[in-house]
Amino acid sequence: MRLKIYTFFLLIPLCLGWAMRENNPSGAKIPIFDSTSGKIEEVEPVIKSEAEWRNTLTEAQYRIMRQKGTEAAFTGSCPIPPKGKSGIYQCAACGTDLFRYENKFESGTGWPSFWEPVSGLNIRLKEDKTLGMQRTEVLCARCGSHLGHVFEDGPEPSGKRYCINAIALKFSQIPDVSKTEKAIFAAGCFWGVEEAFRQYLGKGVISTRVGYTGGKTQNPSYEEVSSHKTGHAEAVEVEYDPSKISYEELLDIFWSIHDPTTLDRQGPDIGSQYRSAIFYLNPRQEKSARGSKEKLNAQGEFKGRIVTEISPAQEFYPAEPYHQQYFDKRGIKPACHLPQKER
For this structure, is 91 an active site residue? Predict the structure, then answer.
């Protein structure tokens, strides 16, 4: 079911973004997803004369990005981050975020290949009938530069292969963040839970990722977790800066976004994978979590008794890539799991 939803909603920003940019001769602001902030931002399109592009780009970049050329296979150099690091491939002409390093795969074609862009808002697809072939061209949504083509022979979950000229990309490494801590929460469908914590990006929350934890099966898939046989919960791992936001404040967010009095259920989602749970990573987190739960029960903050599980953290298995930042990447605003002042 979620794969179908994923495919449907991925097409929405792709189609809307294409239509908006094809009909944007005035240069009105356009929505672009920013990987650093994790937000969709309204930005000015980058519009230059061909003379200006010639002065901005190298001769080879101009031939490929503005004249729709193609570099020879196995000749382009596509930087990769140091071991243990990550980064974003951006448009070499305007710096728009295009593809995550994590979504890169070895296709054997001789060109950098990705199975998904950072967002359908950041690229534009266009029918290409040149050279006697029927192809789909990939362009930068902000500056209109030619990047490559997309084909239907990529890996799951998208089945796409974005075949991109290396010279059209520049690499930006995600900076190190020191003195950060992590917290793990489960509060129903992890799409909405992640989105709720991502409301605090730039306010102490550094990054988030969804996954599975609290069960017995190693490296489970979404389908296995949905079978109720793994014991895992859909959870969100939050990396945060304790100098800007405390663990206790994260707990406040956690309590505010779901009903912790329902056992193995949040709204229409039923099953142990949707249970309310706090997985603590150290004794201090355990003390804060238990104290917070006891206080809320004593104060009668909820109509029923809190049934939230408080357990030591186990192995956290990241969910499939298409589950990560699900709403952000598709420009969807969820109606659930958003922090509320009143319960």
Answer: no
Distance of CA 106 to CAs 102, 103, 159, 161, 162, Å? 12, 10, 14, 10, 11
| Cβ–Cβ under 8 Å, residues 316 and 222 | no
Active-site pick, 94, 140, 143, 189: 189
Whole-number Cα distances in Å, 280 to 164, 182, 309, 312: 42, 9, 11, 5
Task: For the domain made up of 13-173, give the CATH fold.
Answer: 2.170.150
The CATH number of the domain covering residues in 181-330: 3.30.1060.10
Which residues of the chain fall below pLDDT 70?
A: 1-27, 84, 175-178, 333-343
For the chain, where do the domains classified as CATH 2.170.150.20 start and end?
13-173
**Full-model pTM:** 0.52
189 part of the active site? yes
Q: Specify the pairing of strand 265-266 against strand 269-270.
A: antiparallel
How is residue 201 annotated by DSSP? B
Location of each CATH 3.30.1060.10 domain in the chain? 181-330
pLDDT tens digits for range 230-289: 999 999 999 999 989 999 999 999 999 999 999 999 988 899 999 999 999 998 999 999
Residue tagged active-site, from 91, 94, 163, 336: 163
